[in-house]
Structure formats: C-alpha cells, structure tokens
Amino acid sequence: MSARTLPLVFVNLGGEMLYILDQRLRAPIASEDTSDKGVWSERDRRRVLNDVTATLFGPSFVDELLKPQQLYSHRTLKTVLTRLAHASIMRLNPASMDRLYELTTMAVKHQVLLCPRPKDLLLVSYNHIDAVRDFVRDSPAVLNQVDQAHRRIIEVPAGSGIYSRADFRSAPSWSLLPQVYSSMSEGELQLLRQTLLVFFQDMHVRVSLFLKSKIQNPGNGRFALPTSGPVPHGTEVPGLIRTFDRRGREVRRSEFPPGGSYSRPAGGGSFGLHGARGTLLGTNTYAANRPEETLASRASAQTGDAPNPLAKEELNLLARLMGSMGAQDGAGAEGAFRISMFSPDDEEQEAGTSKEAEAFEVISIQATQVGCRWSSHLLSITRTKQNALMLKAAFVPQPVPSLFCILHRQRDMLVFCSAQDEHVASELAQIAGQFSGAEEQAENPCGNKGDDLLAMMDDL
Amino acid sequence: MYHKEKSIQIKNSASALYNNLSVLRIAPRRLTYFTVVHANVVNMVSASWDGLNYSHRQLQSKEPNVATSTSLIMQAAFCVLPSRELLVITSQKGIQMYESDGSIMVYWHALDTPETPSEVNYVPAQAVFARGISAVWENYICVGVSSGSILVFDVPSKGSNITLSEVLEEHKESITDIASECSGSQQCIADLVSADDGGNLCVWKSGEEFQLLNKIPGFDMSCSSVKLWKGTVVAGYGTGQIRLYEAVTGILHAEVNAHARWIYSLDIAPFSGLLLSAAEDSLVRVWHLTVSQETNSVEVAHLHNECVTDTQICGARFCDGDGYAFAVTGYDLSEIIRYTQT
C-alpha cells in the first residue's frame, strides 16, 4: 500500500519511546550495574535523550526513512527501535525492550485510530517533534538536527512547486522529491493511515495508563471511540438532509437524530514548523503520571512473525537503517548502564535472546584497496540455480573503512554491510538467521564462497 | 426497525479498507457467502440460512505458481453476471478472479509497475494497487487502478478465457469504488459510475467501447463509496457527507450530513430503495430513497441508526435485494455482525 509510512512511523514511535525513557529515567531505578545504583542523574538522563534524539533525527537515518518503501514486519521495526534505544549509555534487557515496544506501538495505534481526519496524522507527528525539541533544547546541535528533519518532513512549499503524477513516474530516484507529506491529498493520507492500521492490527495489549484514563476497555482491549465531541475540520455536524430542485435551489430541509452529540469543529492546528497543533494526540501523556502507570500486560497473542517472503528486502532495509545510524559508542559495554525498565513479571521467563543463527559465519574482509565507489555500496550476492554468483548493488551514501561479509547459509545470501562496527554486523547476522525458514543442509565451508567473493571484488 | 442477530465469527479481523465486506446470496442452495479482507488474506464464510452450518475458506493474494510474494489486498467483491458469478480480489500486485466459492482461480492479471530504474530495492513513491470492482451489463467486470485507469475485462459465460477488453483513462487520481446497475436484462442510459480519491465521479455506458456520459467534479475530498440506482448516483465522502446526483446530468438532488467521520461503505437494496451507510464514527444508518424518474425528484428519509461500540466500521452490505437483513464489519473485529428487520 502506501510507501510513505516510515518517516511518520519512526517520528511517532521514536517520540513515544523518548516520552517513556524520559519518565522512566526520572524514577529511582535498580541498576544491575551495582557500581552506580540508585537514581539516574539529570545529566545522564539528558545525555540519553540527546543521544537517542540525535540518532533518530540524524540526517543519514532520515535519508533512509524518506526513501519510498513498504512497511515491513514488527520484528524489523523492533530491531531498529532497539538500536535507537541503545544509542546512548543505557542498555535495556530484552524483557524491558519488549515492554517498551508494546507501549509505544499501542500508543501510536491509539493516535492513528483516533485521528479525526487523515491529515491530523501529521499534527500528531508534529506534536511528537515539538516535545522532542523541548527535551533537547539545551543542546543546540541536536536541536538543529530535529529542526532540519522536521523541515524535510513537512517541506512547506517555498516555490519548489507541486510534482505532477508524470514527475513522480519519471523521477529516477527519491532524491528528486523533497516534498513528502505537504503535497499528499486526503485520500493518499488515508491510504497511509490504512497501511499503518494494517500494521497495528490485532494488537490489544492492555496498558494500565490507558485503562485508568478510560482510553482503553479492560474487557477486550479495544480503544474507546466516543460518539460525541467536535467533528473534524471540513465535516458538518450530522443531522441534516437538504433537497434541491433542478436549478440548484434548496427546496427542503429535514433533520434526523444523529445518534451522538456532536459539535462544530474546534480551531484548526498549525501544519508549519511551529504553532499550536490543535490536538492532544501525540503529546506527552506520561509526564504527569507516575512510572507505575505505564505497565503493559500481555493479554493477547503477539502478532505472528512467521518468516515472510519479503525477508530479503527487509534485510536490506534493516542493514541500511542500521548502517545509517552510525557507530555505537565504542565503549558501549563498559560505560553502559544495564537497566530493567519495567517491573519483572512471570512472562520474563521467555527466551530473551533468539536462537543463535547457527548457519552463519562472519568473515572480515578489509576492502582498503577498492575505490570509494565500491566502499560506499551495499551489495547483495545471491547464488542462482546455476551456482553462479550474481552481484547486485544498491547505493548507500556512507563511506566506510571496512566491510563485513555475512554469509547466510539458509538464505544462500551474502550481505556486505557498510556498518562501522562489528557489533552491528553480528546483530544483523543474527537477524538474518531469524528470518530464515526451514533448516537446510549445511553448505560448503564458507571459505569457498569467501574466495569467490574476493575474486569478484578484484574484477571490479 | 432492525435488531441484532447472532454474529458470524471469522478467522481474522477486518482491515480498515473501504467497502470491506461483500455478500453473495445463493438462493437455490440456501446459502450466503461473505468475504472480509484481512491484510493479505480474504476470509470467506459460507453460512447456511438455517444458521446451523458455517464453513470457512481463506484466499491469499498471489500470482499463481509463484510461492513467494503475497501482497496486501485492497478489496474483494462478488461480481454477478447473468451467466456466472465470480469473486474478484484486487491487491498491490494485481487482480485475481475466482469461482464464486473461492475454489478455483480462473484469471490473474498483473498490474504494470513503473519501470524500475537501476537502483535495487526501488519502490515507486506513488502506491500501486487495484481497487474498485464491479460487474457491468452482461459480460464485463471493471476494476480500478491507483493510477486512475479502469480496466474492463470481457468475461465469457464459461471458462477462463477472460480478456482485457479496454482501459478507460479518465480519472487522474486513484480509483476508490465502482458501481453499476442494470446488469443483464434491463436497459439503462447509464450503467456504470466510478469514483476517485479527489471525489470526481465518471458516469459511463457499457458496451464494446465504453462511453463516457458525464463527469461530476469532486471537491478535493475522497469519495470512498459509490452506488448507482434508478439513474441516481449515491456517493459517500471522507467528510461524512452523502450526495445524490442525477447520473447523466450531474444535477445535485440531495445532500446529507450523514456521518461525523469518513464514510467507508454504502449499499442499496434495489427492490426497496433502502440505503445503508457506514463510517468510522461507529454508526451504521439506514435511509429510504424515493426516486421518481417522471418528476425527476429524489427524496431521502432517515429510518434507523445502529451503533457498533468502539468500532470503526469498514464494511456494510444488505444481505438481500429487499434490505430485510444487513451485515457489518469493523476494523480489528473478528466477526460479521448481522441485523434483521423486526
């Protein structure tokens, strides 16, 4: 369906994540790292928020998001959000990350569902961006990044014109389309909203904050939809039937019971860089609440993450997104605080880490000899039926000093990551393993494939 | 006027798509088929009239003989032609046509995707999909495309020799819905209407070459559902309004401030003139239309409301030509709710 969902998905999910991190890091937390127990300092909390924001709104990450693409599985999204959450000195255990993901997705599902009109989805996104701006107001560099990203997402038309359908068709790449959302019609925005609703379908995790504020029904986990209140902009209050004659003159008016109590629309919201947004959806509802309110309980089955046939494209997207987030703090493990963000419960017996992807190996290839054109490419090599190696290249604007090759046996696929650290490469390899379907026989020792690849690289 | 009956449980919940419910009444076998779209799957339920037997089937959207690549489905609808009935499913990849019980796929049409440039993983910025399905006259099935084109398929009375007969290029925005009347026996001046994301309506006369009779301009608001009855176009919009136009002239007969949110589905019971409207505001409304073709006047009267609590409704259809019963689906709801006249 819509290929324009990613920027809004990440702004909203990322924003909700920042709200929760902000709230949680204010509370006294038991840290596993006993060297520094107790409360997070104000400085550390701000550092985490700044680091996560800087990664979320980093120009290369935003570049990747703005490319038209399909919205993939929850697994992919969760992986990227985990990486985002770990962009700083904080480390969440898997159970906490699961909870965090559930909370953020339920919050965004609520916002998307309750948007009075599809265009209000943008206002909700801007609410998130406004709040994030406030979090990082003391860091001019990060604040500037947020502003830049916001501009690219809104792109208030400044003489650059609206692209016609013919332009869209002939544009060789996304880079010619700076304007994303400002030129979308209500119908296209509704398609985007419908795409998001498919993504959030069947998620009914109970969130105690929502239950308390009667936003969510405890019985079935559905969100409460009021049949009263102001109608959206552009809509008339229901209840009137007007009949006209052939000349267009009104000949009759009659009324009918609307079955709800509606009122005229409230004042509109601003779609610019600043201004009151006119809706509470997307604002920080956690700020006023105590941390205990944000518990999520697993009352329903998780959305199925069966291996899907799009896995290869997903994997490529994942590699690009992870790569564009830049290297993690090298000292990651040492200076990091490992925390359990939400109180543990019975479900924490789950296998937090996935099965090790036994079918992969990591080969480190130093590609220092090759030209910069090569070093900035993300490659995928697939073995065709004739056992030939087929090379396809995709452009990723990221110069890297070295390449890591991940041999994924079960998918018979090799992915070169332009990732700057081994940590990301092995993470990706793990995920590649997760995407695999039925087990296949072990292949030749990977040395052969590695040699083939080196030979191919020499030919370029 | 109507009371709630026992709901039919379906295997998956309904997705938030326009016109997400299709009903086919099979009188000789005392069965009714229902189809509801969930992401990349169509859930089909066959319900016996005595309420005792239900059987389920699931259809996926994919090219035949290709194991991979399912895609999101936009719509599933039954097409009733004089000689046969087909189930048409439209998705991001193309159009599938099945026998009405979903047992055999008889036709697959792949959508043209824009030329892919050299860049790997290229995804067109504009979404590509098919949406809007209707049977027309004796042997045509029309399907809309996101580019605004309407594909006209010629369907033989038996077999799978379905061919693309014509492509109608009039709309500039994505097609949302297509509707027809007078299939088979009756002769009408206009027998097809198509609607798009800009609210524009095109009125056609079917034939070996379809003829455009009229274009009714929209007002920049998506028309998500459209119906044609006794020469009157009934259109539901994202603003929650329903408008009734005289098809051939475009004269506005009536305007109803019907719903507080986006309308997702309209249906008409042709023998009684009952109109059903459903929207994201959780309400289903029943109206009565009186169209007098002699005096060229149209009257709309409101009859009944049903509220499906906490549900954004995405499909509503009468189960019979008199409007004695109707069925409703909602986003995230795994059931088909039924209502019958008291």
TrEMBL record, chain A:
GO CC terms, sorted: cytoplasm; plasma membrane
Residue ranges of region Disordered?
247-269
* Descriptive protein name: Protein OSCP1a isoform X1
Which InterPro entries does this entry report, sorted A to Z?
A: OSCP1
Automatic annotation (TrEMBL), chain B:
One Pfam family cited in the UniProt record for this chain: WDR54
What SMART domains does this protein map onto?
A: WD40 (SM00320)
Q: Which residues form the WD repeat-containing protein 54 beta-propeller domain?
A: 1-340
Quick one: a GO biological-process term for this protein? cilium assembly
Report each WD repeat as a residue range. 256-297
What is one term from the GO cellular component aspect held by the record?
A: centriole
Q: List, alphabetically, the InterPro entries matched.
A: WD40/YVTN_repeat-like_dom_sf (IPR015943), WD40_repeat_dom_sf (IPR036322), WD40_rpt (IPR001680), WDR54_beta_prop (IPR049546), WDR55/POC1 (IPR050505)
Query: What are the protein's UniProt keywords?
Result: Repeat, WD repeat
Q: Which PANTHER family match?
A: POC1 CENTRIOLAR PROTEIN HOMOLOG, WD REPEAT-CONTAINING PROTEIN 55
The protein in question is named WD repeat-containing protein 54 isoform X1
**Species name:** Betta splendens (Siamese fighting fish)
- Gene field: wdr54
